[in-house]
Amino acid sequence: MPRLVRLIWILLALHLALGMIAYVHFLLTGQYVALDLYFWALGPLFFLVMTLMEFCLAIVCRSWFDSDEPMRLAWGMIAGAALARLAGALLRAASDGHLPWGNWHLLSRPFGGLFASLSQLAMVVGGPLSMAFLAVGLGRVLGIQRKFRLVGALTPGDQALLVLVVAFSVSQLYINVPLLWKHPSLGTMLLWLSDPLLSLLLVEGILVRRTVIRMGQGLVAKCWGMFVLGIVVTSAGDAAIWASSHGLLSDSMTALSWYIWFVAAAAFASAPAYQFAAISLARRDLSPVGARR
Amino acid sequence: MNLLGIWLARFRRSNLAPAPLSNSPLEAAPDSGLDDLKTRLNHWSQFWSSENESSTHSEAQQVVAERLGRWMERCFGQHVRSSLPGATSQISMASTTPILTAFLGRRATRELSRRILQDI
To answer: pLDDT at residue B14 above 80?
Structure first.
């Protein structure tokens, strides 16, 4: 495993270990004090570190492609997605008053009332905007993989999953479109795009997964595999929110489901770290001419 | 206007006058230099495409193919060879360079090629 990837997963393991202490405290006492403290202080810090790392690595990966190479645009879009997630995490932390200069929560309706709150703006930037960037980037990657005939044929299981994803998107549109007559804010309408965009990402994820299975366990394959993991875990987190809002999860299960977002952040940060490892392996200084092999 | 046209035609003729043959930079190269160039080009095209008809470079080609295979496995995975064009024949620089360039970038592929061919 490349050094940076190992660092990311060690950080995640340490972070989750601390989180589990807070969770066990919650299970034993039934009080949210330790959980609140953990998700108030360490949670945003972890997101900031992971998204910053993802953004920096994606920018480095982008810089290693020339301007006429198609992967430059793909990595540019992935860097854009990471930046949007970073900006979302910063805005969220600021709106919650986590940062020293975070008094922006006093702004009741930022940007002329287009967004209900700063927190909603943070959700739009870190959610649909970031997903749109990632969808364009992955679309570009799929185009390149298709050119090399790396995209494998879909199995019946993949096809069933695709049908499920499309059906879910259509059902969400069916629920949300009638709400347009109630004149929701721009922020609310943009947040409705989360599910269709996540569905699109899942479709792309299924296709990329086929490619990864076809290629094997190399660094580039693992890079795209990590994006798929990130998308799948994000979908699981989204499903947990939906189940929790419909009363399908107990309090303890709801609290446990919050940890899933840290895994998604680590997976998204690991993806450019694998690409970085692959390129730096190829670009490492030439060793002195010696014996063959 | 007519005067200007005549002057321009004369100017062009004077500029486009052919250079004397004795000063031509495209003089025939000596036969030995041409043969040397031909040998080198043949040598590199054999590495590039692995379509080897003679057995003189087979060992070196084998080394290139092994190294390429190892790099492809490290970068992409153990099954990637099967999806390359001409998967049934021996792996070559020609078959792997497009995919390496697409996913690692032109500069990284150039350095990788130098690493693969460095002592051959």
So the answer is: no
SS3 assignment, position A2:
coil
Measured between CA atoms, the residue of chain A closest to residue B119 is A289
Cross-chain CB nearest to B63 (options A71, A218, A293): A293
How many angstroms separate the Cα of A51 from the Cα of each of A4, A43, A98, A246? 14, 12, 17, 30
Domain coordinates of chain A in residue numbers?
3-282
The token duo for B1 is 């206007």
**Position A135 pLDDT exceeds 80:** yes
Query: Looking at the 3D structure of chain B, how many domains does it have?
Result: 1
Alpha helices in A100-155 (DSSP H): 118-124, 130-147
Instruction: Assess if residue B115 is contained within a domain.
Output: yes
Kindly state the percentage of chain A with pLDDT values over 90: 31
Interface ipTM:
0.76
Report the candidate in A110, A129, A130 with the shortest Cα–Cα distance to residue A119: A110
Averaged pLDDT for residues B78-103: 75
- Domain membership flag for residue B113: yes
Taking CA A224 as the corner, what is the angle to CA A120 and CA A227, rounded to the nearest 5 degrees? Answer: 20
Would you call A278 an interface residue with chain B, using a CB distance cutoff of 8 Å?
yes
Instruction: Work out the end-to-end distance of chain A between its first and last CA atoms, rounded to an integer number of angstroms.
Output: 22
Band of the pLDDT at A267, cuts 50, 70, 90?
A: very high
